[in-house]
Design a protein that fits this description.
Residues 64-265, 348-536 form the ABC transmembrane type-1 domain. With 551 residues, the chain is mainly alpha-helical. 75% of the residues lie in helices and 1% in strands. It contains 24 helices and 2 strands. A two-stranded antiparallel sheet has the order 1-2. Helix 22 runs antiparallel to helix 24.
Amino acid sequence: MKEKKGTGESLKRLLKDPSSLVLVLTSFIVLILFVIYPLIVVVFTSGFDNWGMFFSKARYGKALLNTVVSSSLSAFTATVIGFIYAYAIHYSNIAGKKFFRFIAFIPLLAPSVMSGLAFLLLFGRGGMISHWMNSVFHVELDLYGLPGLWIVQTISYFPLAYMTITGVLRSISPNLEIAAQNLGARGFRLFRTITFKLALPGVINAFLLVAINCFADFGNPKLIGGNYSLLAVEIYGEIINNEPGLASVMGIILVIPALLVFWVQNKVLSKGSYSTVTGKPVSGLKRITTSRKTDILLFIFNTIISIFIISMFAITILFAFTKNFGRDNTFTLEHMMKVVFSSSSPAVLNSLVLSLVSAILAVAFALVLAYIVVRKPFPGKKLLDFSAVLPIALPGTFVGLALIVTFSQGPIVLQGSAVLIVIAMLLKQMPVGYRGLTASFKQVDKSIEEAATNLGANSRKTLTTIVFPMLQKTVVANFVYAFMKNMNTLSTIIFLITPKWVVAAVSIFNYAETGTYYWAAAVAVGLMGATLGTLGLIKLIFRSKVKIFDF
């Protein structure tokens, strides 16, 4: 018997299943209230007068141009470095591959603003290297503005490019390269015609991901940018000056390139599949590796990048555990006790609590959304799916702006509450889990859930007793991702924090901006310690079900 389809039939089935009806209605209410409604409010808040003011002042146009230039440059260099770094690990015979993988992982434990802090400690006007250059060579380093921002954003987002590209390189089948070699392709020609072409979708994707993160970056431009103003910094200034209309205009402009990037990712890159292009690896075949000379060059390159990253972490740790490193190198725990373990400075604890709560809610909501979108027929499914993935295309700065503009006045006032911070974190991380869980649901045979339904289980019971156990690995992996991103976020919540609910990333930024670098360093170390400790506990609980420290 042919199954009846159509909006009417979908609605009838939904009404017969109260659990599914509640899940669908709740999902619509949450996404309309916190995604669609804030977007509408921002558009109407912008106003024609504010649009005219934006285009009439050269300062704002320059900030937009600076944002595009710096983001493009940083994304390009981060992607190039990420590709070479990943290529060295997967295509060479260099020693220390596990160590290099670990080095690429550790920046993920720290907020991007910590890169700006470390840069100030090393290359700022009073930084160690700046001081050494001045005393030995009488050269004054002045890297504030575009040069410093370019370096900092490149290092901050290089791990993102590396993680994206390494997955693609790992999936390339060696038999294609061996076939090309048998036909006469060698060395750079083999790399250019086969390896790089197969990896190109991943390289483009990495560039786009880094560009969108640089575009929305707030902390580093504020600390390092100097007079080189960027759009995210201008938005922050207008919010501080109580000009939500002008901030909304700039927020909308900030969204346009982000949506273009999102469109390119979904329309252009989705036409190719990594598995289709590369084929499956053939058992027994070994990947063609680089020559001895190339190995040496790649080893030197990865070592230089690793030294740079290690230096940034080392200088931060030294400032955290000395009186005032460079002037008074006496070991002390005073800074850690003052800004990490003191009840009067709960930033790290706040980050831990808010990140855990938000990560749990984000994964739970993503699980519910994926379940009803893949498994349940109901009217408005495409709208719900679009609303669920939309936040991933929005810069964090815009998400925070939209929430503060919308919920700082009636009918719903959430300004100053931890709830709004949790919502902001949830909105930015939930779409990643939703995408992953949607793909996982499609790989699980629907008949298993149908059997549970036939035995009397409703949607809630099926979800908790059948679906969740089968997707536990994906759920835990997405929880770990959401937790790490929440711990390090700054741009998304910079408008939402209050003295009561200040978080670690914001404290690092505030201390660095006021020149109390030892306190900023102490908070950074405390944040990384809390993140690492929580991940270790998760690994202990779930063991082989989650991979965190497998380099």
